[in-house]
């Protein structure tokens, strides 16, 4: 009887030991992951905004160049 109680107790302690050793993320680790994800999202948004600004600049530059060509053609035609 003593051996069976001792065996059951040892099995229970071993089971609890295995469960308690399972790795769990702490709140600070979860928060750090969220901060990293947010940082990545902000970097992506900033890159997209920079690309959009470059595209707008290129479009405006092309429009000004086209307008200057039109003015030049008008001046040449009127002479």
List the helices and strands and how they pair.
Elements: H1 2-20, H2 27-78
What report would you give on this structure?
With 79 residues, this protein is an all-alpha fold. It has two helices and no strands. It has helices spanning 2-20, 27-78. The radius of gyration is 35 Å and the shape is rod-shaped.
Q: Count of helical segments?
A: 2
- Quaternary arrangement of the chains shown? single chain
Average pLDDT, rounded to a whole number, is: 83
Strand content: under 5%
Gyration radius (Cα, Å) is: 35 Å
Q: List segments where confidence is low: pLDDT < 50 over at least 5 consecutive residues.
A: none
H/E series, N to C? HH
Shape annotation: rod-shaped
Helix content: over 70%
Cα(first) to Cα(last) distance is 119 Å
**Whole-number count of domains:** 1
Supply the helix-strand structural class. Answer: mainly alpha
Major sheet size, sense and barrel closure? none
Total strand segments: 0
Short description:
The protein is an all-alpha fold and 79 residues long. The chain has helices at residues 2-20, 27-78.
Using brief descriptors, characterize the structure shown.
79 residues, mainly alpha, rod-shaped
């Amino acid at each position: 009887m003593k051996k069976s109680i001792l065996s059951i107790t040892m099995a229970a302690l071993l089971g609890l030991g295995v469960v308690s050793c399972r790795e769990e993320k702490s709140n600070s680790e979860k928060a750090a992951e969220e901060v990293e994800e947010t940082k990545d999202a902000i970097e992506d948004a900033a890159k997209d905004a920079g690309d959009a600004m470059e595209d707008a600049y290129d479009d405006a530059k092309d429009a000004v160049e086209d307008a200057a060509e039109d003015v030049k053609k008008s001046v040449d035609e009127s002479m």
